[in-house]
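Support request, please re-run this one:
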Amino acid sequence: MSLKWSLCIGAYQGKDEVYHLEKIKERGFDGLEYYAWWNLPDIRRTAREQERIGVGISAVCTRFISLVDESMRDAYIQGVKDTIEACRVLGVKSIISQTGNELEGVPRDVQRDAMVETLKRCAPLLEEAGIVLEVEPLNGLVDHKGHFLQRSDESVGVIDRVGSPNVKLVFDVYHQQITEGNVIRNATGYIERINHYHIADNPGRKQPGTGELNYVNILRAIKDTGFDGFVGIECGYTIDTDLAVEQFKSDIVARL
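Re-run finished. Output below.
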């Protein structure tokens, strides 16, 4: 089994999804993460371009609506329905979801219960479509102050309560390094609840190899579990993107 590699929209600044897909094909990668699919001018055109190029979008986001605010439940579910329809056109099998920020004055367990219930209501829609919704914990120290889910153990607890094979996590190594460290143990120990990974180095959120994280060891440990899904490089770049990708392939991928 081998890992699949994706780049994220914005890797080539100012360029559209077609340019990114052509670059991904050229560099021997496997997919593009395009977050706000609703910003695509014509998703059917994008679908045709994917077919022409031979590589496609591997993940999108659902609309950015709070999961912890019960009053937003209907809007969140409608956002998931809209995203599933876009995924059907684009052939996408993964939808990333943030949780929204913690609500002031509302007990944390009430907010967590609201999230679980909303995800439970989404699960049959996702199961029918054959698409996985991935909840993403984010760090609150540097990038996302107040984001509800930050720790991987609490996030796994939410996924386990939802109890659907189509509701999992995206494990972002950069975020979890800042929040809790213990990366290899959590990234591999929770493998059954993780659908794909994001990677960037810390500090700075630049390409792997520019900070403190040993990505050869981290990615080797993930690969050794038998995981064969996507690892998305979600970062800024200190050098030309093409050069950074080739450096990543030679310095890290070749050593796995």
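The CA atoms of residues 189 and 225 lie 9 Å apart. Residues 4-255 form a domain with the TIM Barrel fold (CATH 3.20.20.150).
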